[in-house]
Amino acid sequence: MAALSETIGAIRYWTRDGSTAEPHPLRLNESRIREADEAWVPEVTPDGPAVLVWFDSN
Q: 19 by DSSP, 3-state: which?
């Protein structure tokens, strides 16, 4: 879990505060980790809940 959180935290999510865009680290949503799948993981962004999606290798 710690390695996954660290890896996901290295990904930046850009959001605007009305005038400027700023990068923010993604955060693993540990309260929804049971919903994780081999192709996506639940995240928390400054804009609210989200999922990080990638291509499934199967």
A: coil
